[in-house]
Amino acid sequence: MKATKVVQEMKKQSRTGMALVVVLGFTAVFLILGSSYLKNFTQGKSISVKQLSQIQMDFFAQGIQRIAMLKFKKFTPQFYRAYRYQLAKDGGVALTNNYSPTPLAKFHGTGVRNVLQNINDPDFMSPLNVSSYSTEFKMSKIDEFNRDVLEIYVWVSPVGDPKVYSYKTSFEASRTAIITGP
Q1: Does the reported pTM lie above 0.85?
Q2: Starting from the edge strand earliest in sequence, which strands make up the sheet with 147-158, in order?
């Protein structure tokens, strides 16, 4: 009887010792998982801030491109005249009217009173910190001069980053003739 009690006590002690080993093992596994999670979180934070800035610049450039497209849709005849003037000027043709700035510059976003250059408005670029941006339009003729492809380029320079990011979008536009009365 005494021998069985001794054997039972030894089994209880071995179970208690085994439970302690299992708990320490789980604790070590959770400690390793927690430390690797904290390491990934602290290293990933700087990357996510850069990604947020990049996403904000992408959306800013898309917004500028949409504003430029709306401007093109509203002032289509003036755009075509300005574009032809710019092509003639770039080709070295002597023009009778020497505009300063050129008519196409208003579409590119230069000048103070321009829908694409609201740099003085603090809410225009909030929360993105942009030091400067610029736009440019390019045309390609297709289908025997009946259709055009309008390309809108946007360059964005963020504050504190020497790199200039460029964005391009293309739209197909049909030419319409405006007939004026006598």
Answers
A1: no
A2: 130-142, 147-158, 165-174
